[in-house]
Write a structure and sequence with these properties.
Blueprint lengths: L8 E5 L11 E8 L2 H13 L4 E3 L6 E3 L4 E8 L6 E4 L2 E5 L4 H10 L2 E2 L11 H7 L8 H4 E8 L2 E5 L18 E8 L1 E2 L2 H18 L24 H7 L6 E2 L2 E3 L7 E3 L5 H19 L8 E3 L4 H8 L13
Helix pairs in contact: 2-5, 7-8
Bound molecules: flavin-adenine dinucleotide (FAD).
Length: 318
Amino acid sequence: MPQPPPGVQSDYPLSRLTTVRTGGPAEYFARAGTIAALERLVAWAAAEELEVGVVGSGSNLLVADQGVRGLVVKLDKDLSKIEFDGPRIHCGGGARLPAVSAKAAQAGLAGIEFGVNIPGTVGGAVRMNANAYGGELARVLEWVDIVSPGGSDRRVPDQLGFAYRRSDLGPHEIVARASFALTPAPPEEVKATLADMRARRKAAQPSGIKTFGSTFKNPDHPRAGGKTAGQLLDAAGCRGLRIGGASFSAKHANFVENHGEATTADVIALMAEGRRQVRERFGVELEAEVQTLGPIGAEQLESAFGPHAGTAEGSVPA
Ligand SMILES: Cc1cc2nc3c(=O)[nH]c(=O)nc-3n(C[C@H](O)[C@H](O)[C@H](O)COP(=O)(O)OP(=O)(O)OC[C@H]3O[C@@H](n4cnc5c(N)ncnc54)[C@H](O)[C@@H]3O)c2cc1C
């Protein structure tokens, strides 16, 4: 294989780029600071027939223990900037959502307050259709610039297939930039909303643990009786359940916690056990919210991730 472009590293440990801190290395890893650099990397990968994956803040990501074949990209520099244009914010796909929310509040712009507690990037939030406290990404998102092996294009929310915690972006489509159209409001009011959201979150969720947040989506099945995934796991006796170095958090049963030495295999076994107990107790099939990067066996995907496992909705193949 010809030399990779400058800046591409081999065997790069990905666990340090995820919040749960498990999983193996990327065969190739690179940071892209501009659209041109990103396009060059993606073109190189296409020419070498390498799969392309992207990692944001890794706050919703489970990396296979054996690592990821192909190229994994992380956006930085220009592609993580946050810039104002009147009531609009233009940012890189690698910009951190809590920073976007805080800067918007300082500038007296409302509409993206819900991002303050979502520890991900703008690109990850678009792929996941991230939401909190009734806020809605699609309501304020104007457009995204996508880079992929098939070329680059600009899309509006109607073209992104947003549904509960998903979009129909393909696994190789990278959100490089995004624009949000916000509403002018007194900065003190927007800041007060952020403070209230932070306080509510602190009371409800564990902090300072290695986790990817909610493991399973909240089911809308009638047998769930309106219960959240966390309430079902709790009622099925999974709160605190531990396999290897991973457990369901004692504070929030839908959060998996890595106690320090967990492997991705531990996390997957725990997820499968949680799904099994909820199925047996309530007849409800939980579906994973967390995304995967790298090869996870078909059997584990089905038992731990649920209905959409192995599809573009449930995992990123590599
Ligand atoms: C403590 C905690 C609390 C959380 N609270 C919430 C919450 O309230 N609401 C909520 O919705 N989520 C929540 N999450 C989940 C997570 O923060 C969101 O899903 C977030 O949007 C993921 O962004 P990320 O940059 O971390 O993506 P990653 O975890 O890095 O990746 C997630 C997926 O997005 C893809 N991706 C990443 N960057 C890009 C890009 N630039 N272009 C295309 N695809 C990309 C990845 O390939 C992967 O498929 C929480 C997580 C934690 C750890």
